Amino acid sequence: MKRTRGLLLGGGLLFFTAGCSSPPLVDLVPPKVPPEKTVATVNGEPLSLEEFDNEFRLMSIYYSAVTEGDMRTIKRRLFEQVINRRLLVQTARKIGLKMTQEDVEGTFRDALKDAPEDFSAVLKVQGVSEQAWRRKLLQEKLVSKLVDQEVNSKVKITPGEIEDYYWAHLSDYWKPGAVRARHLVVKKKSDLKKALDSLKRGEDFQKITSTFSQGPEKAEGGDWGLMSTERISTAFMRALSGLRPGEISKPLKDDFGYHLFQLLEWSPRRMRSFKEVKDRIGESLLKEEQDQRFNEWMGDIKKKAVIRVNQEMAPVVGVTLEGLREE
Question: Which of 39, 117, 241, 277 has its CA at 20 to 30 Å from residue 172's CA atom?
C-alpha cells in the first residue's frame, strides 16, 4: 500500500500549483473536448463521453447483479450527478474557493484508508486511469468545501427549537419495556429432566444452559441480552411475568421443544428524557434544514445555468437523456 499511496499522492500534485507564499490552487478547469465526443455542455464547458464513462466505471466497482432496467436508472442518476457536480465546481471557481495542499493530500489519504493493496490494479481492471480517479476525488472535495461554506455553515438550530420539537413529538420518545433473561430450550423431554435434575442439585442455571440448551444463546449461557418486550411471544412473557430477578420459570412446552427461563432484569416502558434525545434531535433537525437549504440553493444555481445535452449521444451513453436539457 505504501508504494501505491505514494504514487497516487505524488501524482495528485499535478492538479495544483503551489506557491511559496500562498496556498496551492486546484486546477479543475475541464480540458477541451471535440464536439463529436461531447455529451453535454454546462455553461459552455464540455462534458466528455470519456468523463461520464470513467464515472460509470468507478461506480461499477460498487454495483453487481443489477437488472438492465435498474442500470438505466442508475446511469440516468449518475449523469445528473455529474452535471450537478460540474455546476458546483464552476460555482466554487467563480467565488475563488481554494483548496490547500493539506486538502488535496488528505482527500487521497482518506480515500485510500480502506482501499485494497492492489488498488491500482482495480482501477486498471475497470479501465480507469489514476488521473481520472484523482480528478473525481478533488472535484468532490471542492464541492464539499463549497457546500459547507455556502450552505451548511449558515444553518443554526437553537436549543429552543430542539426542545420545542421534543415536546411537540413526545409520543415518538417512548422507550418500550425490555427484559433480560437466560433461555434454555431442549427438544427432548429426557433432556429437560436432566436440566431439572441439575437444578435440584444446585447447579448454576448458566452452566446448565451452556451444557444442555439447543438454542442460539447457548454460547452466552442462554443470555439473550436486553430484549424489547414487543419482540417476545405472549407465552414467553407469561412465563417471565411472575418471576423476580434470579428466579427460574416452570417448564414451558411449544412446537420448538421445552423451555426454561431465568429472569435477570426488567426494564419498564418509559418516556425518554429530553437529555437523552436532545443531541439526536439536534442532529436530525440540522440535517433536515441543511438539506432543504441545499435544494433551494442548488435549484437557484440550475435555474441560472445553460445546460445543453447532445441527444445523439444517448445510445452511446446507454441512458435516456430526454428532459435533462435546461436553459
Answer: 241
